[in-house]
Amino acid sequence: MLILNNTTMAIRAMLRRPLRTFLVLQGVIWAAAIIVFPSAVEKGSIHNAIRNASRFKTDQITVRAYEKPGTEKLAVSDIEAIEKALKGRKYSVTPFRTRSGEAFAASRIIKTMLVGTDETSPGTRSFYASKGRYLTAEDVKEKRRVCVLEASAAEKLFPQRSALNKQVVVRCGEKLLTLRVVGVMEKRDAERLATDEQGFRRESPLGGKGGKFRTKWLKQMVEKMRFVMGIPSEYTGWKRSERCVHVPLSLLDQEGDAIDWLIVKTDPLGVMETAGRIQNVLVARNKEPVLLYNIFLPVLLSDQLNVKDDLTSALFLLCLFMGGIVIANIMLMSVMERHREIAIRRVEGASKRDIVWQFLTEGIVLCVTGALLGIPLGLGLAYIVSLYEPYAMSGIGIPLKDTFIALGCAVFLGTAAAILPARRAANLDPVVILQNE
């Protein structure tokens, strides 16, 4: 009952001067926001990266080989060597050959990209057929003239009818292929299509049709970040075009068993280690590989953010210290303004201990209120940042640990800041005060 009465009196004291209370609480509010904000972004991003690995490509490694004098192209035979290096890990490896061309159906024609692959592609890319079926091992082995259309290609070539079992003529260079459509791929959402292999978001999530619009400044920032990080530019637009025609790998013949790309799917938490093993294998086989994968999850899980944590802790403690000084001074002023109230309470029978607990409770309630205002402020800032960051997997989560730290520090700060004012209030002589009144 005593705690409830003291809390009620503390709230009334705060509401008597709401503007002053708000200004006094700025240090505590921003301290709570500072400790919650980075943790909310970090936790939300890690959660997104693991839960939606296929969307943000945190589980994929795209491999390309630079073709320079003295080095060799990627080849189907490299897959066996990679599988040996990844033995004991959960993974899948898929080869790809790509060719630009045109597709014809009835009187319609579209520019497209032929993607030669095998039956493992849907599982590796997490990209499946929504109608009909995908390519099979028999299709590849027997060089069957079949194909699977991506969603946009199917809509353009067959706008009024189903594409299944229809004929499509594909021109690749001087070569013409007549193919039977056996499947149509699922339509991917805009966010998935806008995310590249390194996890960069190529479109802003604000405004425009469907909540998306392309921004020149964002692209420039992404390219600058790539340059600073030493990430080479590789054209992988075919993975996001929705206009590709998937055909058996064997239909796109190349010299020997050469291929253009390898895509490896693995555990998101082990992408960096897996990429290291693949690179070592390919270098040993006289290749010069370029490995593209989402670089932000490994960074979030590494010790590279210790500097950020130290800076956050320093700012948090500084804001708490300044906030504590302001609150202590304001409470001393409050004691001076409330001499009459204190004297009346003493005359009515309140002990010195009761007065001490009254002001301690006020200090604690004041600081906890600041923390409760600062926590949603930090989450709001994290949400805004997640919208504008070029990292597609950016998101927000509720950092329970840091939330409890903020609340615990607020209780400690309120107690520490109120000790001196509470003792001064308890030591006032009610008789002297009332005589002066």
Summarize the entry for a quick read.
It is built from 17 helices and ten strands. By secondary structure, it is α+β, with helices and mostly antiparallel strands. Residues 206-214 have low confidence and may be disordered.
Note down, in words, how this protein is organized.
By secondary structure, this protein is of the alpha+beta class. The protein folds into two domains: 2-51 and 304-436, no CATH class; 59-197 and 234-293, no CATH class. It has 17 helices and ten strands. It has helices at residues 2-16, 18-24, 26-51, 53-56, 77-85, 121-125, 137-141, 151-157, 190-193, 216-229, 271-284, 296-301, 306-337, 339-347, 352-388, 400-426, 430-436, and strands at residues 60-65, 91-105, 108-117, 129-132, 146-149, 167-172, 175-185, 245-248, 261-266, 289-293. Helix 14 crosses helix 17. The protein starts with a helix and ends with a helix.
